[in-house]
Amino acid sequence: MADKLHFSLVTPEKALFDGEVDQVVVPGTEGDFGVLPNHAPVMSTIRPGWITVYDGGKIERVVVRAGFAEVTPAGLTVLAEEATPASQVDKAALEQQIRDAQEDVNDATDETVRAAAEQKLEYLTTLRDAAQTVH
Amino acid sequence: MPSLKEFRNRIASVKSTRKITKAMQLVAAAKLRRAQEAVEAARPYTQNLSRVVANLAQSMAGQEGAPAMLAGTGKDDVHLVVVMTADRGLAGGFNSSIVRKSREHIAELLRQGKTVKLMTVGVKGHDQLKRLYADKVVEKLSLRDAKSIDFAIASGIGQKIAAMFEAGEFDVATLFYADFKSVISQVPVARTVIPAALSIDPDAETDAPDLKGAVYDYEPSQEDILESLLPLYLNSEVYRALLENAAGEQGARMSAMDNATRNAGEMIDDLSLQYNRARQAQITKELIEIISGAEAL
Fold this sequence. Notes:
The complex is a heterodimer. By secondary structure, chain A is α+β, with helices and mostly antiparallel strands.
């Protein structure tokens, strides 16, 4: 058995994932990077996108927004403001949410409200894409 | 001496009050458990984030070009005071103690000739502060409509604060909320979040993870990371304050309602005693009247 990477994904609401995996691909601000066991220490901000977790032939995608990844000899820690595993997505509900978000973007009169709504929409569509590529 | 009927009415009214306080206590207890879980769940995130920000801040300390949010604007003329209280009362001294602490702070700042801007989160704090400082309130928020406290609410508040800072509307921001120590103890605290350097506790666990001699690769640069993490740090501080407050509010309400329930019980005992005495006195009086009436015949 090869070395395993300790990976933890933490959001403000809860610790979403904490365990040993084979490899994680993180969407860094300056490009995606894969993290294998014994990776050199890195600190990177992340862009909205998905984290791909490889473990024993299984692939799990987790969509993240606004955060930060830190690789230390102890493992990889990702702090994300929001994170949703693609496998836990209810597609019908998601479509509805996307429609709602689209309406919010259209209805927004205030510039900051529109920006927030657009971010939300982008997050949701990324989630949809991630879910589609998995199933 | 009130009549027997008056006694009965008062006992009935105290009993129904006791029912209400008892119910409120139980509701607060249930909500407290949830709020406590939320505080626990948020801890890994806030701890990790403050550790990273503290480490980055330390390694950048004294360098030119540190983000203003970390190092400050170089002045401290305008202070933003964010007072976070509950939206509901009947929680003992919970709201008042936060307000009192913030009032002392504001009075001190005014004495030093600083400009104070006030942002209130929660209706109760605003109600108490508007009497004195109505002209200083720049923003008044209420979480009454929010079903539960999630990170989106906190980042909304955090972004407002950050936007005001970017616009140069203040130099120093301080959050006032109650630290949830236990069900019976919530300590009002003041936490300076901008400049962030002041809020980083030098005694806190900032021990960097053992890199085994390697150094971090920063992607993008250290400054950029810090720049993008500071708003997150601000949001997470606001989030933590909101959660601590939510748990503290329920804890304070629970113990206040526990006291009220107990007091109501004592009052019922007292009243019942008085009621029985009055009743017996009346029976005795009636007996005396009958006997003395019979003797007179």
